[in-house]
Amino acid sequence: MTIAVTGAGGQLGRLVVDDLLARGVPAAEIVAGTRRPEALADLAGRGVQVRHVDFDDVASLDAAFAGAEKVLVVSGTDFGRRAAQHEAAAAAAQRAGASLVAYTSAPYAGTTTMLLAAEHRASEEAIRALGVPFAFLRNSWYFENYTAQLPTFLEHGAIVGAAGDGRVSGAARADFAAAAAAVLATEGHENAVYELGGEPPFTLGQLADVVSKATDRPVAYREVPAEELRTILLGAGLPEPMAAILADVDTHIAQGALFTDTGDLTRLIGRPTSSLEDAVAAAVAAL
Fold first, then answer.
1. pLDDT tens digits, 243-286
2. Are 175 and 269 in contact (CB under 8 A)?
């Protein structure tokens, strides 16, 4: 069985490939797709098939997925163009005869009004319309989305947000990668929709407490209106579309959009999810 993973040069895709190898999937049966094959020379040296993948190049998709029985389409970063790109990748997997197309989506993509999920919803609809067996991996927030901001939190002594007491079912990126690898390496996931999130959930206020304890420096959560948060993000240098999307995410956190209690993530990976405390401690150690 050959398994193809797109975005293998990125953070999530690379972790999926590493997890497949750790699970004992033969390297020769893994296709690592990336725009820059030269960057994955180490995987090629281990016997992984490194192939060029560009969502905008149908020929590259057909060549990369040739012989693949399962394909993971890791959602791209070309905002505004992603739905068409993901549909193109899924269609190429279908032409290759894949028995499963897995796609990394967003929480409650079929119903949420969160701006970040709009392209995911369109992507899911397009994949369903193709008629190819699918698995939607609706990943909640990565711990890394917050731990990457540690220097800013410490500089200002605050985590600024508009999330209220909304709970986030966050987990480490590696946990979500392990779930994807489990779906690819095992059977029985056709037409499944997994709402994936870590346990226990946390509020941004609790995140601030964890950061304070890990750094022994005072960090508080400061609640602001969503529009003020957007202005702050713009002032920090984010482009307008991304500032609007992130402010909207916080608004939806307050409404429960990033909370899930399905237990899907724990079941798929066969262990408890990583803890927020460990993730913050590791990020602090890396500073």
1. 999 999 999 999 999 999 999 999 999 999 999 999 999 999 99
2. yes
Q: Is 3-139 a CATH 3.40.50.720 domain?
A: yes
Residue with tokens 């549909």: 87
Is the full-model pTM beyond 0.90?
yes
Q: Which CATH superfamily is domain 141-170+197-259+272-287 in?
A: UDP-galactose 4-epimerase, domain 1 (3.90.25.10)
